[in-house]
Amino acid sequence: MSILFTYIKELVQVREHTNEPLRGTAMDELPSIKNAYLYVEDGRIVDYGSMDDLHPHPAEEVYNCENQIIAPGYVDSHTHLVFAATREKEFEDRIHGLSYEEIAARGGGILNSAAKLADMSEDDLYLQAQDRLKQLIAMGTTAIEIKSGYGLSVESEIKILRVIKRLKSENYIPIKATFLGAHAIPLAFKDDRNGYLDLIVNEMLPVIGEENLADYIDVFCEKNYFTVDEMLRIIETGSAYGLKAKVHVNQFNALGAIDAAVKAGAVSVDHLEVMTTADYESLADANTIATALPSCSFFLGLDYAPVNEMIDKNIAVALATDYNPGSTPSGNMNFVFSLACIKMKMTPQRAFNAMTVNAAHAMGLQYEVGSITRGKKAHLLFFKDIDSMAAVPYHFGHSIIDKVLVNGHHIQD
Ligand SMILES: N=CN[C@@H](CCC(=O)O)C(=O)O
Ligand SMILES: [Zn+2]
């Protein structure tokens, strides 16, 4: 199937290649073509340019897009999409003054989610997650990373990862699976943390390797969760199974995890609400992507990751949702876009680069998605009649996406 989009008001995020993540002043540029055409064949971008340069084209379908800005779909490189139940009770507890850490210390938080998930069948988990994913795609997400981590037992962690595998095969957007067995110490091991680490290393990872259930490995490196040394042990064992690391660090405390993760070759370090001078130094010029999660800061009332400071220090910054039932019950990348601009003071150019090109790097998809580039997937956002991309974060809380195309096809929501 060949499709030609003509007279596009503005074609945004057009790049010859995206082999490297964007840093420093490159984050300030959002290359685009006004009055453009875009040619798609079999779900891939084949050609684009100014209408002035369009020669007669043998496309099977032609669409006039003169009132529309078209951009690549959002790339969400950090989610916990597979969970069994929401946690409104903890939300109310926080309104009454309890902190996220206090709720966790009382047995709420991740352990609460793990208890609920243990009781849910793989089929039901799948149906719920598929429904959520459908909603996210309708809001513009066209590539997503999904973590396990609400299992915390061999059976339940594998159950989540099998659900993600099924989501991969049933959807047309790229999905990456991350094994997060080290999300919390489960109750059964509360007096034997080494026993739980051994379970991850000796029981979970061999099955994951055998069934090819994950692309990445993650650890929640934080006080009362996992130490830097424990994180390194898990990352190293994961790498023996071909899993690269994407880790939760610096959400509440700076423990030196960033330096350790960068040296261990982590693809990304995520959260970063609390940063030290040493953390900036470890990340400057590193290949590791620094992923900020502003919706989590919004929901928990935490500081926002200092993204502009990072960009000024040549750190490659990405943005993601962190969609999960505890700290971020929203998977809406449009809202992330708004928070990045309103709360983190990113320009729309910086924010959109962080949510597309750099986010694709944060999940190894830089050759597949995240820009209008020849050969990439035609996963596209068509906006309602707006004058510039700044209108997208400006209209916070509203969807101004007219259509989402996956492989060049319109997704009906
Ligand atoms: N911080 C660790 N994990 C999740 C939240 C987990 C939960 O509260 O259920 C996060 O990234 O925010
Ligand atoms: Zn997370």
TrEMBL record:
EC number(s) given by UniProt? 3.5.2.7
This protein's superkingdom? Bacteria
The note describing how and how many cofactors are bound reads: Binds 1 zinc or iron ion per subunit.
- Name the catalysed reactions: 4-imidazolone-5-propanoate + H2O = N-formimidoyl-L-glutamate
Q: One GO molecular function term?
A: imidazolonepropionase activity
- Biological role stated in the UniProt entry: Catalyzes the hydrolytic cleavage of the carbon-nitrogen bond in imidazolone-5-propanoate to yield N-formimidoyl-L-glutamate. It is the third step in the universal histidine degradation pathway.
Please name the HAMAP family in this protein's record: HutI
NCBIfam families xrefs: hutI
Protein's name according to its UniProt entry: Imidazolonepropionase
Q: Which family does it belong to?
A: Belongs to the metallo-dependent hydrolases superfamily. HutI family.
Positions with a binding annotation for Fe(3+): H78, H80, H248, D322
Query: Which is a Gene Ontology cellular component entry for this protein?
Result: cytoplasm
Q: Where in or outside the cell is it found?
A: Cytoplasm
One GO term (biological process): L-histidine catabolic process to glutamate and formamide
Specify which residues bind N-formimidoyl-L-glutamate according to the UniProt entry for this protein: Y150, N324, G326
| Key words of the record | Cytoplasm, Histidine metabolism, Hydrolase, Iron, Metal-binding, Zinc
**Pathways per UniProt:** Amino-acid degradation; L-histidine degradation into L-glutamate; N-formimidoyl-L-glutamate from L-histidine: step 3/3
Q: Where does Zn(2+) bind?
A: H78, H80, H248, D322
Just give the chief location class.
cytoplasm
Identify the residues that the record assigns to the Amidohydrolase-related domain, covering every copy.
Answer: 69-409
Q: Which cofactor does it need?
A: Zn(2+); Fe(3+)
Q: Which residues bind 4-imidazolone-5-propanoate?
A: R87, Y150, H183, Q251, S327
